[in-house]
Amino acid sequence: MKAYYFDNVEGDQRLPHHNPDLPPVGLQQLESCGVRYWYIPIDSDGNWEQAIDKVAEERSYKNRDIINVSKEGLGDQYEAKLKIFFAEHLHEDEEIRYILDGAGFFDIREPNKDQWIRVFVDQGDLLVVPAGIYHRFTLDEGNYIKAMRLFKEEPKWTPHNRSAETDSNPHRVTYLHSVQAQ
Length: 182
Fold this sequence. Notes:
The protein is an alpha+beta fold. The chain has six helices and ten strands, in the order βαβαβααβββββββαα.
């Protein structure tokens, strides 16, 4: 995992968009936004599965599935799905992703400065994006990511695109209060 401020330069969303002149973003800063992160390397002994199970138990994740975001994995829906993923949105549940293969970027809207923090994730990264935070996702130039999605209840992924309505969404309001209290 590597996190930094998104440079906001027009161009291919799959590029790093990293300006080294901008200040770095550390794990503590991500945590102040409510984002949680673990590195759990995939090993041949299956220890990674036990580690995922432990996190799932601690955080009450009851269900999981695997998503393959690629042209092969999504077929005719590939381009449409990427547009949906990259539109700024929030969820009313945590978004939990453990990267099994490939790589991509989660852009997290920093609540106090309203700037994008870009989080590069690849194999072994477990990222928890809190309910109510504005964010978006894109692949990197490899155009492929395989991730385990974990859920507290039945699997669902419902994006609510940013609008005046989502600004007053109860999950958004609760999120903002939680990060202000830190």
